[in-house]
Amino acid sequence: MDCKATQKKLPAYLENTLSGMERDLVSKHLSTCEACRKQLEWLVVLDKELKSMQEETPKPYLFTRMKARMSNEKQVVMWWQPAGYTIAASLVMGLMAGIVIGKLTITKTEIVAAEIGLNDVFNDVQLESTYQFTSY
What does the alpha-carbon distance between residue 38 and residue 44 come to, in Å, rounded to a whole number? Predict the structure, then answer.
């Protein structure tokens, strides 16, 4: 039996709920494997600690108070949720309108800038060509 299989069976081994053959296999593995023995020791200590703890009794009307708090929280969430969706939708629409207006403005600016830039290029070419003809 390997460590993984043994460690899965350690709680049942500790509670004495394994069959005779399984218990013998786990015992045999524990006699040769220190890591699994340490795991069993840790489970024994944990089991003792859990058994030594006192059982807590809930305060009266605990369930009723918790149920009331949960129902109040749902009402708070429901109140602001539609407002949040409305605000988010308005922001998205405003952003889209800004992008469209910005695209239109940029497009006109780019056209004017392109026309001015091309005119300068053509004027430079004409000046260079006349300069070249006059220099001969």
Answer: 10
DSSP notation for 56-121? PPPPTTHHHHHHHHHHHHHHHHHHHHHHHHHHHHHHHHHHHHHHHHHHHHHHHHHHHHHHHHHHHH
| pLDDT tens-digit series, residues 9-37 | 999 998 989 988 999 999 999 999 999 99
Answer whether 30's CB lies under 8 Å from 40's CB: yes
Single pTM value for the model: 0.41
Instruction: Tell me the residue type at 89.
Output: A
DSSP 1: -
Place of tokens 């593995």: 29
CB-based contact 44:10 (threshold 8 Å): no
